[in-house]
Amino acid sequence: MNRIKINRRLAEAKTFLCFFPDVVERKGLSKAKKWAKKFFKDEMRWMEDDLASKDDLRKYIDSRTEDNQVAIMMSGIDCDGVEWSNAPSIMDNPSVQKIMKFEREYYEYADGSKNWGLCKPSTVVGVRSTSRDLATEAYENGHPHVLYT
C-alpha cells in the first residue's frame, strides 16, 4: 500500500473516531485508531472500483453498438400512475461519459421508478412505445386503486 493511501486512511480513521467517542473512551486512542483502520480496511474491500466499473460499462456499450450508434430503451412509472415502456432513443457516438451523463439526467427528477438499458439499434426498428394511465383505468373499471412505486 502506498504512503498516500495510508495517510488518507489514517486521516479517515481520525475523522471517523469523532463520531464514536465511546470507542475512544473504552479502548484508548491508539487502540481506537487501530480499530478504525481495521474497520476501513474491511469496508474498503467492498467499495466499488470506479475504473473497473467504467471499463465494464465500456464493454457493455461496445457489445450494443452498431454503426457508432446505440439504442437506449426506457420504461417506468411516475407518481400519478402513468406507466410507459419501450421508449427507444438513439444515441450517436456513445461513450462512457455520455452514458453516465444520460443516467444522471434521466434519474435527476424521477418521481417514480425508472429503468433503462442499452440495445442494438437494429433491434428497436418498429418498436412502438406504450403508455397507460393506471389510476384512470382503475377508476373506469370501478375499483379503487393504490400505487406502489
Task: Summarize the structure in words.
The two termini are 44 Å apart. The chain is flat. With 149 residues, it is an alpha+beta fold. It has a four-stranded antiparallel sheet. The chain has helices spanning 3-17, 21-27, 29-46, 50-64, 96-108, 134-141, and strands spanning 69-77, 82-92, 114-119, 130-133.
List the helices and strands and how they pair.
Layout: H1 3-17, H2 21-27, H3 29-46, H4 50-64, E1 69-77, E2 82-92, H5 96-108, E3 114-119, E4 130-133, H6 134-141
Antiparallel strand pairs: 1-2, 1-3, 2-4
Helix pairs in contact: 1-3, 2-3
Can you give keywords for this protein?
alpha+beta; four-stranded antiparallel beta sheet; 4 strands; 20% strand
Structural classification: alpha+beta
Oligomer: single chain
Strand count, sense and closure of the main sheet? 4 strands, antiparallel
Terminal residue distance = 44 Å
Specify Rg, calculated over alpha carbons: 24 Å
With strands numbered from the N-terminus, the spatial order across the biggest sheet is 3-1-2-4
H-E order: HHHHEEHEEH
Give the overall shape: flat
Mean pLDDT, nearest integer? 78
The domain tally reads: 2
Report the β-strand fraction as a percent range. Answer: 15-25%
Number of helix segments? 6
The count of β-strands is 4
Low-confidence stretches: none
Instruction: Estimate the helix proportion, in percent.
Output: 40-55%
